[in-house]
């Protein structure tokens, strides 16, 4: 169950990281409220996952999910570059997350 909670925390991290782009410096109410709610939810869920998961593993996976999701959003929705080198770096993050999960005792 902790892994599912961590996945949800990571997905909420994507929401708030992307949301920052749309708050325009927290000057827009609805995007700001969504972003702040996602931030709080993400951190709370991470905290719950940390009850049983190792700190280093959980934090690395949480930030990795956020990184990957944010980059994918940027490529698909904001026309950010999708160069081979950039995609290869994202693939390495995915491999690192997978490795941490496999090597975790939980």
Automatic annotation (TrEMBL):
A Gene Ontology BP annotation from the UniProt entry: xenobiotic detoxification by transmembrane export across the plasma membrane
Gene3D superfamilies: 1.10.3730.20
Subcellular location(s) per record: Cell membrane
Membrane-traversing stretches: 33-50, 57-78, 84-103
UniProt keyword annotations, A-Z: Cell membrane, Membrane, Transmembrane, Transmembrane helix, Transport
UniProt keyword annotation of Transmembrane helix present: yes
Membrane topology: Multi-pass membrane protein
Protein origin, superkingdom: Bacteria
GO molecular function: transmembrane transporter activity
Any one cellular-component term (Gene Ontology): plasma membrane
Matching InterPro entries: EmrE-like, Small_drug/metabolite_transptr, Small_multidrug_res
Pfam family of the protein (one): Multi_Drug_Res
Family that this chain belongs to: Belongs to the drug/metabolite transporter (DMT) superfamily. Small multidrug resistance (SMR) (TC 2.A.7.1) family. Gdx/SugE subfamily.
Protein name: Guanidinium exporter
Natural source organism: Pseudoduganella guangdongensis
Organism taxonomic ancestry: Bacteria, Pseudomonadati, Pseudomonadota, Betaproteobacteria, Burkholderiales
């Amino acid at each position: 169950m902790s892994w599912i909670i961590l996945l949800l925390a990571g997905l909420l991290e994507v929401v708030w990281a992307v949301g920052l782009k749309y708050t325009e410096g927290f000057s827009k109410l609805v995007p700001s409220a969504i972003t702040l709610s996602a931030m709080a939810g993400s951190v709370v869920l991470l905290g719950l996952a940390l009850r049983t998961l190792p700190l280093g593993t959980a934090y690395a996976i949480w930030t990795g999910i956020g990184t990957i999701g944010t980059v994918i959003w940027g490529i698909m929705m904001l026309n950010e570059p999708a160069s081979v080198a950039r995609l290869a770096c994202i693939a390495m993050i995915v491999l690192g997350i997978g490795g941490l999960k496999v090597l975790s005792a939980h």
